[in-house]
Amino acid sequence: MTTASRTAEMNFDGLVGPTHNYAGLSHGNLASSKHKGAAANPRAAALQGLAKMRRLMDLGLPQAVLPPQERPYIRGLRVLGFTGSDSQVLETAFAHSPALVANYSSASCMWTANAATVSPSADSGDGRVHFTPANLTAMPHRALEGAQTQRALSMIFSDAQHFTVHAPLAHTPLLGDEGAANHNRLCASHDAAGVELFIYGRDALGPRTDLKFPGRQTLQASEAAARLHGLTSANSLFHAQSATAINAGAFHNDVVCVSNETVLFFHESAFDNPKVLEKIMTEKARPFGFTPDFIMAPAEKVPLKDVISSYLFNSQLVTLPAGGMALILPTQVEETRSTKAFVDAVLAGDNPISQAYYLDLRQSMANGGGPACLRLRVVLTPAQQAAAHQGVVMTPDKITALEDWVKSHYRDRLTLEDLGDPAFLDETRTALDALTQLLDLPLLYDFQRSTLDTRAPS
Ligand code: SUG
């Protein structure tokens, strides 16, 4: 691995799995509902994701991947009482309910911003990086991810001297946890201690009647993650996402907000009482030696509906090795007049953001996943970078190897009818088996451990 000589933020992108499809599973996610039943192109989706990773590496940024999870998830269907060979389990379940199999076949773990909440060792106080895998309780297809995420993170960050991978929080409406998609971190620079900002959609113990779509992240889950990670009231802050944003289709906070080092880049409608948030954050930042840069898009210049359709704030905001920051945006932002004009104004303005790159991520975008959804940020010291599993760290050659792997194993057209086909199950397993060799993660998947074992995954 190209171990950086300094503390750096490493992006762990979700490698898009071979079952990428449009099943319309996410109520409150307008793109997911709109594309329900459309034919997907898993090959293009995976190649678009890899092209994004290559682009960030070309900018000099460290890059890694999280592997796709096992889908269709046969062991999960066995737990529901389907029996026989793996092919029979799939066929019987599909005959019973194609919609059920769609839930057990989703490639949704590609959006690794939802994989976990991560606190760097500079914040946690015990010298370790802490991970809490998200339970994703709000959506049935995503609620399957937590246990497998925990396993993958435990294999990649196995060194207990440097890392603590917690269990996902319990699957209860009280503790709905969607991971880093509702978590920001402000700091003077990535190697410094900072203030972690948790944005929740719902206080599960308080009354909230103004949501027409699910507020997936609860205050109680955010507080639990902060406690588990050793954060204190000095370096954490909890604030509500606005009902206006959720009801307009911002099902995660990262649809209306992104942070990097001193910058909080957000829409006017992102939060309840944004001025209060700015004031408290400014006070909390002071002992950490920085003043936050709040860059807010006013609703009169950038309508919320343009934000939701273009995913302006689901951009990656990265610190360039030579200094300054760049936005990595979906092409939809360039194609939308109000958002393009706003980005141009930000680039010309007096703030740390000096560059913008527009990338084609249409396959993921059609399910409501932009550049920021596709990555989990992990700040690592040089020693932690060296202690992480090197097989998932990207080099230009490894990206090429993964592109070749996609080209030889992925379909370029997938519909909901295909999900019940045992031949497709075999295809996905052949692909995932080959992947574990490429990433040096043997026995990552349940089907590699034992196809006859019907117990719930560990
Ligand atoms: O959870 N879409 C995902 C998109 C997640 C985006 N992530 C962040 N904003 N961080 C979701 O709603 C759609 C799957 C389908 O309909 O087939 C889906 O799961």
Bound molecules: N~2~-(3-carboxypropanoyl)-L-arginine
Describe the main β-sheet briefly.
Answer: 3 strands, mixed
How many individual domains? 1
Annotation field: number of helices? 18
Strand content: 15-25%
Question: How would you summarize what this structure contains?
Answer:
This protein has 458 residues and is an alpha/beta fold.
Topology, pairings included?
Layout: E1 8-14, H1 30-34, H2 42-58, E2 63-66, H3 74-79, H4 86-96, H5 98-103, E3 116-119, H6 121-124, E4 129-133, H7 145-156, E5 163-165, E6 183-187, E7 194-200, H8 219-228, E8 236-240, H9 243-247, E9 257-260, E10 263-267, H10 274-285, E11 293-297, H11 304-310, E12 316-319, E13 325-330, H12 331-335, H13 337-348, E14 353-359, H14 362-365, E15 375-380, H15 382-387, H16 396-409, H17 422-438, H18 446-449
Parallel strand pairs: 1-2, 4-5, 7-8, 10-11, 13-14
Antiparallel strand pairs: 1-15, 3-4, 6-7, 9-10, 12-13
The structure holds N~2~-(3-carboxypropanoyl)-L-arginine.
The site of N~2~-(3-carboxypropanoyl)-L-arginine has 24 residues, from loops.
Give your account of this protein's structure.
With 458 residues, the chain is an alpha/beta fold. It has a single domain (8-71, 106-449), classed as 5-stranded Propeller (L-arginine/glycine Amidinotransferase, Chain A), CATH 3.75.10. It is built from 18 helices and 15 strands. The strands form five sheets. The chain has a three-stranded mixed sheet. Helix 10 (274-285) links the parallel strand 10 and strand 11. Helix 16 (396-409) runs antiparallel to helix 17. Residues 452-456 have low confidence and may be disordered. The chain binds N~2~-(3-carboxypropanoyl)-L-arginine. N~2~-(3-carboxypropanoyl)-L-arginine is lined by residues 21-26, 29, 32, 106, 108, 111, 113-114, 139, 142, 181, 251-252, 254-255, 367-369, 373.
